[in-house]
Design goal:
Layout lengths: L2 H34 L12 E4 L5 E2 L6 E4 L13 E4 L2 E2 L5 E2 L3 E4 L8 E8 L11 E7 L6 H9 L7 E17 L16 E14 L2 E11 L6 E11 L2 E10 L6 E15 L2 E10 L10 E11 L4 E12 L12 E13 L4 E14 L5 E14 L2 E10 L6 E2 L10 E11 L4 E13 L8 E16 L2 E12 L4 E13 L5 E16 L4 E15 L3 E14 L4 E17 L3 E14 L3 E16 L2 E14 L7 E13 L1
Parallel strand pairs: 2-9, 15-23
Antiparallel strand pairs: 1-3, 3-7, 4-5, 4-8, 6-7, 8-9, 10-11, 10-36, 11-12, 12-13, 13-14, 14-15, 15-16, 16-17, 17-18, 18-19, 19-20, 20-21, 21-22, 22-24, 24-25, 25-26, 26-27, 27-28, 28-29, 29-30, 30-31, 31-32, 32-33, 33-34, 34-35, 35-36
């Protein structure tokens, strides 16, 4: 590289960094404002299995196939309600979503380091699932943050290293439809008319055994058109970590079960002690997902030895008064005290025991004392692995959680166990069973309801891409609710042939019957996916999903079909890449007859070592054959730039 080229490159980097530094300064000023703002977020709950990558694990693959299994649910998941975020970016449109699983494979390599995954969804009855959130670390040739910090401390690393990534996208949406005083067509539009600015900014600096990471994200909420801003600044060294802005917080099963916090969290290690202080706005049970509750607390942990540690947590959560939501429920005040002891029996077996009390007060009522405890045992031995839980949670015991979902773990007295046994080299069998009593709070006379839920499976797995599994699930309770389902899934990796490589086939079938005092339904679904790569530059995926629900009580039937084709064409590895997709969604039945077609295209241009440009068009065609007043055509023009520095 000549001296002239070096000067030109430094000039370009300087021009790039100047507006970014100004943007960082502005977002820092917005931090205090963000804490005080209320934002709508998706309601969250459920019981699922995180298949891959497992939580808090380190992997080497730069494009990991992230998979979550819903087949253990009592009722099927509504695919249209699923939202998948990877590192705060919504990638749902690029994922394979069915009633029984979600699979996502990044189209580009993920950077080395820690990555976060968050999934929200509802079941077919409209009930929200608990937040499915976990993190994993990608290693590989690049050193992760911890390794770099070790090198810095030894004087072997770079003295100072600052890297960043900025993605700025502008979207202009226009729709053609017939206005009507009786029908508001814009209510069913996922994107609203007008101009949107989407922004992702990440900056990290590492030197002398410490790191500083900053991130800012601006998104537009689907259907509501509301703008959501999220800011995170994190400082970390070997003994201290500070987070401020928007982050996901989970403490324990009986304190903070998992919620997004807009506030501040400090973690300090002092010998055998570790101390956490946190304060900020969290989700609130009476507002279905707004930052209406102020939560503050402290948690201290003492490590007795390598096998035992005890944590004590004290927190308070105060719901703020709101003229709209107070019409449905009064603000509550929670005061929670928890003691958690964790013991590692062996390297493969661990147990924990947590007891907690909540002094809860609603409006001007007297303070109620509610208690809870939970015992957990998990581990593996030879070919067997499993876990067991024993719990008793009072009906008014309320931990901090997302929206109404923090009530879902309350009002239960029972146990559950789960186990798997590798019967042969390629064959694994397993089962799960839960039995609990709860008080029927909807009945005028207090009544104890007993619920039993179980499922069993057998799987033939020769490698991660060759699997055949069958699952049987059933739930019953004394109020007359029965859910019974059978599911069959196949995943096969087809041997490479000629110009086609990495070809895989996924197929699934499920039949479930649901009975309650007011509803009797039969649900059947099947799905098929074919993925392959043509030569080295064209990846393709074809998807078909069919779901049929027969409501035997009302004598109605509904059938939903989704057909999709997805392409990723690398025209020139160093310059041009094209992403395109087509989806056709139809809903037919006794009271619905709609069709939605969506075409998406995005063209990437690598203009420089530090710059990428993109331009794209999205088309949506919606037809309602029962109410034509809802018909609309929509076009979205997208342009964006990505900068690395």
């Amino acid at each position: 590289m000549t001296e002239t080229d070096e000067k030109r490159e430094k000039l370009i980097l300087g021009l790039v960094k100047l507006p970014i530094l100004l943007l960082v300064f502005v977002t820092l000023l917005k931090c205090a404002v963000a804490f005080a703002q209320e934002q709508n977020v998706d309601n969250k709950v459920g019981m699922v299995t995180i298949v891959y990558p497992e939580p808090d694990t380190r992997i080497e693959a730069a494009r990991p196939m992230m998979a979550v299994d819903f087949s253990g649910m009592e009722t099927a998941v509504d695919p249209s309600s699923v939202s998948l975020l990877v590192d705060r970016v919504d990638v749902t449109s690029n994922a394979e979503v069915t009633q029984w699983y979600v699979i996502y494979e990044p189209v580009t390599d993920l950077a080395a380091g820690e990555h976060n995954v968050v999934i929200t969804a509802k079941d077919v009855e409209g009930k929200s699932l608990e937040t499915i959130a976990w993190k994993f670390t990608i290693g590989g040739a690049k050193q992760d943050l911890f390794e770099k910090m070790v090198l810095y401390e030894k004087g072997l690393g770079e003295k100072d290293n600052t890297i960043g990534h900025l993605s700025l996208t502008s979207e202009y949406t226009h729709a053609d439809y017939t206005s009507s005083p009786d029908y508001d067509v814009t209510e069913i539009m996922e994107k609203k008319e007008g101009m949107d600015q989407l922004l992702d900014l990440e900056i990290s600096n590492m030197s002398a055994g410490r790191s500083v990471v900053g991130a800012f994200s601006r998104r537009t909420q689907a259907y509501t058109g509301r703008t959501l801003d999220e800011l995170l600044i994190e400082y970390s060294d070997s003994n201290f970590t500070a987070q401020t802005g928007n982050f996901y917080l989970k403490m324990s099963d009986l304190t903070i079960v998992g919620t997004e916090m807009a506030g501040l969290k400090l973690d300090k290690n002092i010998g055998r002690w570790s101390l956490s202080l946190f304060s900020g706005r969290t989700q609130d049970p009476s507002t279905s997902g707004t930052f209406k509750q102020m939560t503050s607390g402290v948690s201290g942990t003492f490590a007795w030895d390598k096998s035992n540690r005890t944590s004590v947590t004290v927190l308070q959560g105060d719901e703020q008064s709101n003229s709209f939501y107070d019409r449905y429920s009064s603000p509550a005040r929670d005061r929670i005290f928890s003691v958690l002891h964790e013991h590692r029996v062996t390297d493969d077996i661990s147990m924990s025991f947590e007891v907690a009390a909540n002094r809860r007060k609603v409006a001007n009522d007297a303070t109620d004392g509610e208690e809870a405890f939970k015992f957990k045992l998990s581990g593996k031995q030879n070919r067997f692995s499993g876990n067991f839980e024993l719990y008793n949670i009072d009906k008014d015991y309320v931990p901090v959680g997302d929206g109404n979902n923090k009530y879902l773990s309350s009002n239960r007295d029972g146990f559950k166990g789960r186990g798997a046994y590798r019967a042969a080299r390629w064959v694994t069998v397993g089962a799960e069973y839960e039995d609990y009593d709860s008080e029927d709070v909807t009945s005028e006379v207090s009544e104890i309801v007993r619920t039993k839920r179980g499922n069993a499976f057998v799987a033939i797995v020769t490698d991660p891409f060759k699997q055949i599994s069958y699952r049987k699930s059933k739930l019953t309770n004394t109020t007359g609710i029965v859910s019974d389902s059978n599911s069959f899934n196949v995943l096969l990796l087809v041997p490479d042939a000629s110009v086609f490589t990495r070809t895989s086939v996924r197929a699934g079938w499920t039949d479930s019957e649901y009975t309650s005092p007011i509803v009797v339904s039969d649900n059947t679904s099947y799905s098929f996916t074919l993925s392959t790569q043509y030569r080295t530059n064209l990846s393709m995926r074809l998807l078909f999903i069919n779901m049929k629900t027969d409501d035997l009580t009302r004598n109605t039937s509904t059938e939903n079909k989704k057909t999709g084709a997805y392409f990723d064409w690398t025209i020139d590895p160093d310059k041009y890449q094209l992403e395109s997709s087509y989806e056709n969604i139809t809903k037919n039945g006794s009271s619905v007859d709609t069709q939605k077609q969506e075409v998406k295209t995005l063209f990437h241009i690598t203009g420089h070592e530090f710059f990428d440009y993109s331009v794209g068009l999205d088309f949506v065609y919606y037809e309602n054959r029962i109410n034509p007043e809802y018909d609309f055509d929509q076009t979205t023009f997208k342009s964006g730039v990505e900068m690395r520095f």
